[in-house]
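Weekly structure sync - notes
Attendees: PM, LS, DV (DV joined late)
Agenda: review two folding runs queued last week.

Item 1: First target. Sequence and structure tokens pasted below for the record.
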Amino acid sequence: MRDSAIRVDTSHETGPVLPEDAHGARRVVVFGPPGSGKTTAAGALGRRLGLPLLRLAPHAQDAHVPYAGLLELALALPALPAARELAAGLDAVTDRPGSPDDAGPALRLRRLTTTLLREVPPVTLVVDNAQWLDAASAAVLGWALRLTPDLPVIAAQHTWRPGTAGHWCGEDARAVRVPPLTAPQLATLLSPYRLGPREVTRIHTHSGGNPTLALALAQARSHTSAAPLHHVAEDDPALPRPARRLVGEWLATVSGEVQELLTLAALDDRPDLGLLSDLAGPAAEAMLAEAEAAGLVDFGQPAHTLRFTASAISTELVARLPAHERRLLHARLAETSRDSVRRDRHTAWATDAADPRSAGRADRAATRARLRGEHALAAELSLLAAQRTPHDDSELLTERALTAVRDAAHYGDLPRGRAAARLVLGRDTTPAQRVDVLISLIDASGQHLHSVDELFADALHEAAGRSDLTARVLIRQAIWANVNEGDPQGACALAGRAATLAEASGDTATTVMALTMQARVQRVLGHPDAETTLDRALALPRTAPVPLNATPQHLAARHALFDDRPDEARTALLPLLAEAERTGDAEATVDILRGLAEAELRAGRCARALDHAHRAQALTDTTALSPAPACYTSALVEGTARRTDLALVHARRGADTARQEDNKVFLSRNLFALGHLLLVTGRPREALAALEEVRDLERLQRVHDPSVLRWHADLAEAFVTMGHLEQAHELLTGTRHTATECGRHTVLPSLDRVQALLDAARGDYDAAARRLTDVADRLRHLPVERGRTLLALSHTQRRGRRRASARAAARSAVDLFTAHGAHPWAEAATHALHRLEHSPSDNGARSLLTQAEQRCAELAAAGTSNRDIATTLTVSVKTVEATLTRVYRKLGLHSRFQLARSVTPSRDAEGS
């Protein structure tokens, strides 16, 4: 068997989609853990071969019964004489005293099985649960299949280890791994359960993308009704019964010794090869290889750390332990661990819960974890410290619980935040403490504000009569109004009221946050006082910690980005990033990384932009923050710097999530990214639909400033590409007026670029070329935008039959995109240059079209009307329309604008 496994691209919507080279293989081993969809994958592969399926499905109890598999084969084909003869031969072997491995009977069974396989009608043999095929049957089948090489065989089994001896179904059998479902695939699979995005993300992590396990978790979750915070019990650490059965079956694919080692790994928060080797000795590596082959763990992590492929595996391993045994194993880990914080963690868990010393140890360990940036560990330890603090020490318990809530909020860990909050809300605490807890929970929810609206009512009730506390709640309500309700005017009013209350009470930190929020929405609304409000916030001292993505410094950096000052934005954001990473505020870190990625991209530093975007996406995916913001940035950066196909995946995921969360701000942004990518990859009709939805959302939210989200130029270009020239003209004129009115002159170059495309579509190539040349000169500080303009200039010069100028512009675009690492754009520009240098007579299009179609296309590309084409060619207008329809279909085009880019305009038409 080949040593390299091929991963299957699995789609839950249409069944497994197997690789083309797997479809052509005659012998395939499909492998994956229980519940992964092996049976479905094997069936799909068999159906692709176009033959009836002959299925065998041995069970676990058959594995130790000699020749049970051969008997099932014989009984599956009762109409064939050879099958009846094989069944009789099996009866003779089993009735005969002595070993069934005697040479005579064994050879006879091999001959009978070979005869049967040769006589069977054309079928594909599918053996499900092949790991339970008894050894005697496997030996005979393997021998017979060598003599029947034309018989397709598909075996589905739990595991396959590279480097093992040949499989019974053939030495050259191809191994096909059934991979887990991706997050978007799982979201579609679970859509009937109407779960929120956070819950889908949680199930994806818990199941590792195993579809059967995910369904078991979703079914249990759908039966759990939501309760108010004060009445929600702590999360049950045990899995629902169907999930436990499946995970148990999965764990049973490895030995008991391996399960014991994995249990120790599950009790550690970051197990690595060194720790596990210290625990299990030299055998650890072989045991972990067995676990990895079974799909239970993944060792492809930094620093040789082990990751369970599904967190439900570690949950089940821990949950099945009795409490006293769990404490003993933690004590063993405390003795073995080389890390002081983790030693203290295990010591605390090994101690009886009633021992107050364990609370102090956990608290000190949480502080050290926090200082060295291990914020997930800090959140666990601070909650443990609060839970272990004696209830009669009310003040210390409340202090530790508040710390635990803040740690959870920083890491976006809402379940731990809620558990810590219950310790405060269930006791006799002050209004300030209770509001602090509720606001921390709101902040922990991040972009998932759709799930915390009840918290606002509780927080306002607790803050009654305290203007400083009320102001803090109003700021969060302003964020809600802007993000979820799409009401920036309402958000502006709430933020203004919060600023007034905070200022009156002398709360400078809250005043800064309120003014920053007010300035944010004033900019969106195009309010002339936006910068004045921001300056007021910047002038105030920072007297208390403020979330870094809510500081006026962060907003000032965003405004610099809106105003095409990327280097200024970068300078402001870098120190904020260092502070956010030091304090462990995951949401702020993601927002700042996103800003840095967009600044570097705008400045043409694409490699740096990719690094920041990847870090933001990775942190988002490991902290259960909403993926919508990071997906938006990833889509923009990936589409410009690396791969448009990956960028489209990010944009669609972000739009789907934002729509589910009712997050209008990031729905607009991800739809804009989607529309932009569809436009630049030659899919204008789809781009138009996405960008028109962006326009509608922006109007609904009354967004007035065109510099905040620059969708206008792309929508106008989509209109031009689709031939809707009047709509393009109206949009460009209106946006130019608004930009000038708001003083947003940085928006004008992109509008002028599309105005040039509109000029060219109307046949005025000279005006278009002059305008594009001017725009390119104005964009020297924005290399990618300048390159995009030069590429448009090349297309325009080509349409105007100025091939030398077109080549020069395309060559400049290639050099610019290549120098700045904008690879998809560099490929597009290189393709345009190649066409100009090697295809002067449109040979590609000409070879597809008849002579009449080519002549008609050339006239249409020059801007000639259908009636004038009909007159020139002495045919009817209907004939012209039908001919152009065929041309569009053959060339894969949608409009005359695209036609003009693909076919050189007719000289006759230009001279007329």
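Item 2: Second target, run right after the first with the same settings.
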Amino acid sequence: MRLQTCKTGSGEKAAKQARRAVLLATTAVVVSFATPALAQTGADTANSLRPGGEQGATRPFNIPAQSLSSVVGAFGRQSGLQVTLATPAAGNVRTNAVTGSFTVREALSRLLAGTGVNFRIAGNGRTVVIGTGQSTVDLSAAEGTTVLETITLTGKTGRNSIAGSGYQGTPDWVYETPASVSVVGREAIQSAGVRNTRDVFNRVSGVYAGEGNGSFPTVSPNVRGLQESGRVVVSIDGARQNAQRGAAFGGATSYTASAGQGYVDVAFIRAVEIEKITNARSGNAGSLGGKVEFRTVSADDLIAEGENKGGEVNISRGTNGYDFQGSVLGAVRSPDGPLSFVAGYSRTIMDEYKVGTKGEARSTALTMKDLLGRDGWSTFFKGEGDFGDVKASLSWMHQENDFVQGASEVIDRESVRNDSVVAKLDWDPESELIDFKSSLWLNDNMTHELRAARKYAVETNLDMGLRSFGGSLENTSRFDTVAGALSLNYGAEAFRDIATSVATSAKIAENPSFASSYTSFSPAGRRDVASLFLNGELEPADWITLSGGVRYDWSRLKGSATYYSVRDYTVTTTVPCDAIRNHYTALDYFNQVFAPANPSWAARYALYLARVWPTTSANCMPGTGTTTNTPVTEYPEHNVDIDRTYSAWLPSATIELKPVDWFRPYVSYSQSLRPPTILEAFFAGARPGDSAGYEYAPNQALRAEKATTYEIGANMSFDGVLLDDDSIRIKMAAFRREVKDYIALGYLVTDQVLDRTYTSFVNLDGTTYMRGLEFEGNYDARSFWIGGSATFLKTEWPEKTQVFSNGTTTTTGEIVAWPGDVAPKVKLTLDGGMRFFDEKFSLGARLNHVTPTQSRTLDTEGNLREVTDPYTTVDLYGSYAFNDKATLRFAVNNLTDRKYIPAASAYTAPGRTFIATMNVKF
């Protein structure tokens, strides 16, 4: 935001005050469902004027004097309105204390009196315009006054805020949301110095990076023990990243049933929003345990207030294989028109790294290649239009990634293209009955794998694609009822996944059935998912909010799968005896055959005729009179046509209490349904190799997973606790999730082949339980901060059973594998630091402790077996702002150079790594 400094006099004191004022700005958004749109006068005296006819109920306020960044949350909680600080740079404006009973306008007028900041309520009380209005007072002549340019904010978009005083800079709206929600903003992402996108989840409570495919730069977060196969929805601006792939990729685990293949370049991400429980709202169709949405940057993130263009350049270099990460983003806005455009380019080059040297923890370095080098580039485009009541946008993120994967001396090369296109159209007129949002999206993922030749296979090309497209429509209507303020959100969403898979090689050209051994973990097929939802929120009193809804999910899987069986048998071939006498006379045989072979008999024909010929003449000619047993192996082909549907009504409900301003407890209940993925439904073939696919077969009776989640939690927010401008933010929750028909890899016997056991995706009999406690908190005194997160998770799987989903008794009842390992029981992060030189320089440190990753198998005491060692790491990070245009960030990850395998990971982590990033805005 550009600020203009106006001062009178020539004294040094006045100049100093003016320089300080340049750093200050403010913005507030008030959402009111009943207050009509009225103009608000300017700052100071102007803010105290009330247009005739406006009426407002008084309510108690107790807000100490503090910075605007801290007061936004407090004012929102005490007023019951949605308040947003959309420009973090304005957060240092010093506000006044407000104590007593006032209307919202009176409280705001007192709060901002003397700050030089004006406000105006418009749009049926849902919009705040700061710095404009017919009654704005010209304060340019006031000594030490900062004059703000116009800032326009919409109150219903409070979730657009990505920075605040919470843990890792979490915005205040998170601590006003009665649900387990976490946000990692752009500043936190850039400060962390991440090597891979998934690293942003390492310090979020209840969430793990979920590195299923060790060397793949993919995103597949583990949320509360659920991972892969769409159990947790991963999307970019709503475009789902549904690509899945199974097989073994080495590291600490020897096998994984399915791994998410989401690709996201954080260079274009403004925030990551994590919801750990489902609800009856858009974006939850087919989800079992929540969603993770990556929100991309917009023009407002790059263009300073009062400007029509802007951008930023980020250049990162580091040690230990961190060769280069760089990006450039630019934005332009039409001076008098509604259009703005963003374009960006990103480049990443990572080399092999060295693992840590300290500690005796087990490592994958000796048994597997640490194949974590990669080369990638991305482009991003977004066009936005703000036409008042109507807003529209169109974005496109294109990503190219080249990397390798493999084990021992065998290396396979991967080349991945991912395109995400999203179009959005929102209509928010003056009517309280209409707040319409719609979106259409396409995500096209294509992976080319060049598999190196092996002892059992020649060089093979494998092309795997998943094209997903869908959309959503929703509307929110607001009413004033005798029971209180009521809002209804309702709509529909749907998407389709279309998978393709083609394998080619010299051997496959000769034996087409060999292809199934390469396409088994990425089969072709189609999946449709649709959902209707209705959710209501009622506020019968200031101290309680009731919300609940229902979602109807429907899905269909359609396609065909081919698998093979093995048939061994022996072919007996008998050739009748054809006697020699049938072809030779005694003399002919003597001259042509016997004598040449026995020269000493040349003059003894008579003796030959008497003794040899009678016997020899009865012998069989060569190649006759034989019986041959030839072993034969055949691979009969079995085709399965699949056309299955799944559906369910899924209720959810939440009760939030607000007994006091700073404490907001809540309880929630939710049901969810996840249909099988294309991989799970059409799984057939064998492990990659030059043979027919006779190991895996589809399970025609596979059921959808169903979950019920109970949650109790609380949000706590304090301002002005020990100092005038300090703050405390706390979010905690306890949950219990029950999953029925959990899908994993196991054994079954098909209806077509009764004498052979196949590996297939099956439903676990019984219920899987996941219980946990989560905490995120932060104390920020501006000059220093201290915060942290804690996760306690316990997972209980059903005991081994003999009967799976098709009702057929199997040979052992064993489970082969399921997606990912079991997340560790405990994950702790302690984060603290200090700010110096008017907060230009910050220095922080993190302490991370994680208990072992667990396996599906049990130890001798009946507990889940631990497959990694516990670890504790230390990270340092900081930044120095040379001015408002240039900032240097630095990080030292794994400061003590520990050797460890990260939670739910397959590869040993990098050793000590120093990363420096230069951010320049223009």
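Discussion on item 2: The chain is about 10% helix and 45% strand.
Action: LS to circulate a short write-up before next sync.
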